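Page header: ASSEMBLY MODEL / three components / 822 residues total.
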Amino acid sequence: MNPKVSFEARERLEKLYELDKPVHIQYLEWVKRFVRFDFGRSYLDDRPVSEKIAERIPITILINFSAILLTLGLGIPLGITSAIKRGKLPDKLTTIFVFIGFSTPEFWLALLVMNLFCITLGWLPVSGISSLDFESFNIIGRILDVARHLILPVAISTFGSLAIISRYMRTEMVGIMTQDYIRTARAKGLSENSVIYKHALKNALLPVITILGLSVPGLIGGSVIFESIFAIPGMGRLFFESVMARDYPVIMGVLSIGAMLTLLGNFLADIAYSYADPRIRVVSEEVKA
Amino acid sequence: MRDLVRNRMALAALVFILAVLVFAILAPLLAGYDPASTDPGSILTAPSREHIFGTDRLGRDIFSRIVYGARISLAIGFIAVGIASLIGVFIGSIAGYYGGKIDYMLMRFVDIMLCFPTIFLILAVISLLEPSVTNIMVIIGATGWMGIARLVRAEVLTLKERDFVSAAKVMGAKDSRIIARHIIPNAIGPVLVSATLGVGGAILTESALSFLGIGVQPPTPSWGNILMDGRSTLGVAWWLTVFPGLFILFTVLSYNILGEALRDTFEPRLKE
Amino acid sequence: MNILEVKNLKIYFNVPDGIVKAVDDVSFNIEKGKVFGLVGESGSGKTLTALSILKLISWPGIIAGGSIIFNGTDLLRLDEENLRGIRGSKISIVFQEPASSFNPVFTIGQQIVETIINHQGVDGNKAKDLALECLHRMHINETRRVFHNYPHQLSGGTKQRAMIAMALANSPELVILDEPTTALDVTIQAQILDLLEEIIEKEKLSILFISHDFGIVSRMCGHIAVMHRGKIVEAGATKQVLNDPRNDYTASLLKSVKALT
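Prediction written out in full:
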């Protein structure tokens, strides 16, 4: 606290933040407010924290969600191909690509890519989430405009997690292909495609669900960096700004929301997994019966 | 060991890592200039014979800054990982060895820590403290031990059922002795793998923080904060961005390759 | 009339230390409608021999030489597409471990229907009826329940019956049984052997029966060949080999078995 603040002002603040009450009462009050998503008001502009977060969350979620879809869409086939052509050129190339993927500093890549596509080539807009004349577009135009702005952040976000997913798929597939039931499938005279894409894949996808759940905190965290670089008004950037400004209510609010999103992600992943894996799903059904 | 030597990529990675280490240690000899000395006459000059990586906005020689920056970035990487390993091994072995309620409480704690995106945690803590090299080391270490803790716990759980532990118990050895002398040395494999990969991660984290301005503060050079300048001068001075970034990339890449190679050595290999 | 003729089969493994001759010049014939036993300890090469009939040998093993004649065709020189037509339909194989041989994420029914549709080209409903019929023939009670169950929900014995049902679904001419009872409890073993005897008799199947158990082999097989370290050391009518072994290895193997029983 700034020591120059007068005594009465301090008293007033203390009362406001209930610092004068015993610690356990403070905690209870905090929990009560927490449950109502009341994180207090921002030091900076005195707006309710939840409001500030609510206006930023959709963008961050949009970016991360797209990144997840893209990661799955690219990573799974990459992993499968790597596994099938193990040791040969496609596998080696993918492995190199993937290693570079998780060794590159995201912000550096963002800078380079931004320089290339936005400044040098001028194909994509440099910052923000929409152009100045956004209002004048029709619905398709608007969607395209947002898409153009978000391509780079989504791509950068995907680049890092692509590595993890494809590497994991590869390991899983390689492990599964040596299993007995794959031998049985071949012994039944099934085509190799059927063996790989039906029998092996379905087993390999199960752990991917869990991995997805676990990668949620990473995605949310990563957005801090590229939202700052691309000037995207998302939750990550809000967090960064409040850290710089020591805006503690907002910091607490975003931390809490971040944690909740992570828990939500894990929870959904757990449910999806127990639904997908018959060994778990059916047991619980039997238990109920 | 034979497999390690056979893996040429891993060998190359190891060589690179050692090279960077030597680089960092011999910084004063290698750097042509004092990394802090400014030269208003040569602002933002492209790579040339006097300045092989060019100069920055204040006329400082980039190459020297990168060489000195290596010291900082590597030091942070190693110490942060060291801290994380110590905490992780400690918590993991206690949780695994004693089991029961202690295990439960500790693992819930780990789960809570894992709920938060690491960057968020780091930023939050930094908002309370001043960014300094020491603080950063500690913060990165203190937010990155969870994975190691889980690994160690898993190893300890399997190891504690083994005969040599029962033998030690029968001979009346104290718990702490059993853990330290018998269990931990055997669990060290996965920890080593994690630590190696962790150095790469720590370097990435530090560079991101410094890039954003809340890591290593100028004029102390770190690969990340050299890039900070690069942000605004990208179109004009590509060397400010490209060189430090490449150093980060290749260093982290080497640690990752080495870590994966170690993982193959320590963990049973599937039929390839 | 021979349904299968294995001539000079060689299966080698390429390992870092050199080449391992896992199956080294093995030859035998199986008569149509008869049960032929391949006996030996683990590692003798008997399973590999069986797998090679359907060319299911995977790297680092390779089939280095020989021929396997089935109904006049050399299977080892057949192209993949024709081979797939034979696998699971003209020749099928029952593996040792029913627990791991079924895909855990599909139901038993789905897996049996799959092979029926693949080889017989009938539609889903007909395939389902055929599959249920197969299960029924294996004396499985509650065929509907088993059909809709996942592998982990069934007992070992039931799984193995289902596995056999799946192998017979397309009316094969030759069935390879690779240690079909080894992974089961002793009481269940007896049941499965009874079942096998019954089916072999009823459907007039030709069988290649692989086992390390002389007791089982003497019950099930008319002719046997004894394998040791990749070679056949003795072959002939079961009674003859068991009562009057000419090879030292066979003799010592039999002696150790008798010592236990």
